[in-house]
Every structure is written in C-alpha cells, then in structure tokens.
## 1
Amino acid sequence: MRKPPALVAILLGTTLAIAACGSDSGDETTTESGITVSGEFGDKPELGIPDEEPSDELVVDVLTEGDGAEVEAGDFLLAHYLGQTWEPAEGDEANVFDNSYDREQPAGFTIGQGGVIPGWDEGLVGQTIGSRVLLSIPPDMGYADTPPEGSTIEPGATLVFVVDIVDTIGADAGVSGTPAADLPADLPTVTGEGADKPTVEFPATATPVTTSTSDVLIEGDGEELGEMLVVKIVQASYTTKETQASSWDEGRGALTLTPNQLPGMSEALDGQKVGTRVLTRIAAADNVTEQAPAGEPIAIVIDVIGTF
C-alpha cells in the first residue's frame, strides 16, 4: 500500500469527557521510587523527582484506583496526562515537556497495539477507568535515542508520566442507526455494518466532485455530538479505485478529529449523534500532494464511534 495522501495522513497521525469515578488521592503521595505527586484525579499534578538514578525497568504506581471498567488492548483510551523527564528540577515545570490539563481536553489514542510508546501500552492496559497512574518509563520503553522532533526530551531520557484514565471506547464500537434517504446518485457505494470495516466501491455513476462535500449515510442513534469526535475512517481513491488507508489497518485504530477538519462535515453532522456514518468527497484541487501534484480525488468514510 502506498503512502496515503497528506490530508488523511495528518488525521491518522493525530492524537471525552465522561465522568469517571475514583477515590480521593490526597494532597501529596510519595511512591516507593521516591517520586512525589500532588493533586487529585482530574487536577494538573506537580511532580517531585528524587536526586537519584531511576530504575532501568518500567515502574507503575497506581496513585488512585478507579472503579470503572478495565482498560483492554485495542480500546480507544481517553486520558489526561502530564509528562516530564526524570532529572530533578529547579523551578516549576522545569522538565515538563507536555500535558493535556492546560489544553483542558483529554487526549485519545488506541492502547495496547503499538500506537504509543511501549511504556504506555504495558503500563495502562489492565488499569481501570477513574485511576490515576504514575509511570516511570526507561528509555527503551520510551523514545530511546530518537525523541519526537521539536520536543525538549533529550535522547536516552527516562520519562515520568501521571495519567488520569477518563474513559475508554471498546474496539467493537461501530455505527448504528438508520440509513439516510434521498442520497445523491453520484456517491460511491459504501457497504458494511456495525464495527466492520466499510467497503468503498466506485460504480460508473460515482464521478469525482469539483467542490468537496460531505453526506450522511447512516443517521446515528447514540448520544449527541460534542466538540470532538472519536472516529474510524477508510480512505479510497477515485483514480485507482483502491483503499489507501484505514483505521482497521494494523496498529492504527480510532482517532480524534473536529467536525470542521473535513469539508462540509460540520453541516452534515448538524443534529446527528454517535453511530453516524459520513462520506466526505474531496475534490482533486483540495488534495494536491507530492504523489499527486495535479491533485487526486478521494472518498473518506467516517464512522463516528464516540464524542466529547
């Protein structure tokens, strides 16, 4: 399979808020490894790193044990987190390289399938919703000698994360609802139900659009949509008639996006609910890439499986 065009490659590389139950963690906790953590579940934590060498193994400390469902491999995990490197710091947040609390929005990612660093996959699968978990991650289970480009993480750094597990969406989540009526005659044919991967075919009537647009194929019957969507997608090319990328590909899974990330999607989703399936048709002029400098018309099936 060739590299997907930039439009959806960005979406696939992207990294809700449902109330989760957990007990009071207290003002400050000191772990066996000497790390201190202040704050309660849902609040931005502050970490104190001891002046000693970190373990060369993954260390998992459950600071607050939630009473929700257990996180399973393949789930789409919704979590708040703060990450910093091990070095003892002088001054507030001296070694903090990222946190979701300041963004006031949990992060979302598929867990247990290699889509995140190994320390997260191993340390979070098996935890419960509502838990606050401290992870001390050695370099070989973090970014090793190749930290993300542009980050402040040094090669070979031990990473320390506090993770608040907000919710999960199971791997079996899919579309559910009523097929939409009065669809345009020039749409590609999309088949597949529930959590199955949709199949996209291009009959002779399915001609590319000159203006990018979106149409609802299935009207969902779940909860009302929020500002962020949890979705699975399939992208196919009008030119080759082949699937170029999908959330069902190995190691991908669901992802998050806002309704306005794709043309016409906000209008199409107005009044819709979780379980909705949308077909977005991208005109060639809106999908110019190195692989297709003249532009390539594509069709993207979006299954909305969650929201926040």
Note: The chain has three helices and 18 strands.
## 2
Amino acid sequence: MLKEVRASHVLVKTEDEAKKLREDINAVKISFEDAARQISLCPSGHGDLGFFKRGVMVKPFEDAAFAMKEIGEVSEPVETQFGWHLIQLTGMIDE
C-alpha cells in the first residue's frame, strides 16, 4: 500500500478542456510541465504538489492520485470543487 505519493496537476474549468488536454499530452503535443505552467488555473504556476499522504487533498483528487501505479502516468479528468484536474504521478513511497 502506498504511504505517500508525489503528484503534479493541471487545473482547468471544464471536463472537455481536460479531456482534450490529456489527449494532447498523451500525443506529446505538449508536455505536462508546459501545460501546468501555461494552461493551468492553479495559482502555484508550476503544478508540483510535492509528496502528500492520504487525508491531505480533497477526496476525488486523493483517490485518483493514490490509484495510479506508474511514475509519469496521467489520470483521467478528475472533478473537484476547484474545477477539473489532470494529475501526473511523479513519485511514490510504499509502506
């Protein structure tokens, strides 16, 4: 079981925007890092959330982040009260 994950995210307004962006990332039309810097509505401007444990992020975001299995994996769009997220798993610590 994962103890902590490290993730980056891109925040957009709509599900359609998130789906299209995920397609572009998977087709290597834009890197996840560039999307986080150029497109994301997140005020941090870089997307990196660092390592976090369960119970820190809002539930839908946390569930998606902890469900991923491979470093570099990009989630399907995830809706929270903040908007629509794409999450990239960038690290993990097992128990």
Note: The longest helix spans residues 15-26.
## 3
Amino acid sequence: VDTETQTVMPEYERLQFSEGDLMPPGGVTVTYSEEHALAFSVPSSSRDIPGCQATDVIRAVVLVTEAAYTLAVPLELGTRGEGGMLTEQLEQMWQKENLHVYTFAESADGTDASATLHLNIE
C-alpha cells in the first residue's frame, strides 16, 4: 500500500490460483509475439516423479491488468505425459506489459492441484 495516495499495489508474482499436494509443472515457458499471441511450451514429465501423474492436466491463467479492469483468462495446456505447444491469440488491445501468466497442475479427476507458479513472459 502506498500510504501517500492510499493505492493498493498488487504483487502479481505472489498471486496463487491453486493449492494442493501435486508437484507444480516445471519447465513451462511462455513467449509473447508482436501478433498479440502467447506461445506456451510444456515439456512432457516423467511418471516417476513423486507428486506427478502423466494424466495431470497443466493449466494456465493469463491475468490482464489494464487500467480500467482486470481479467483472468483460464487455459488448458495439455497433460504432463504429452507435453507440447499451444498458441493463444489475444485481444489486440492487450499489451505485454499488462499481462501476467501463471501455471499449475490439476489431477485428472479435479480433486487435487499444485501451487501456482508465476511465469516470466519472454
């Protein structure tokens, strides 16, 4: 909180959209293109890692923090076992400096999740 203006300054890197016992998805990357798209890369994970199943769903949340509003856009990136690439086209008005991207894993049956990781947009 900025005490002079009484403005709340969110710490976007610390936001959590999920919590649970699953291992967070490692190695997920996101790149912004000038065509207003986000390209996600999800590596396939080993089934032998404790807290991971090949069927765990890897999810992302894109938080758009424009001056007049904040919008959360949920995405499904695939499963740990398959990995892969996904490109998501964005609205033309959304600029890279107003985007925050987060990822987490969710069990296939939706009963458990991992902590949320904040991703650096390349």
Note: The radius of gyration is 16 Å.
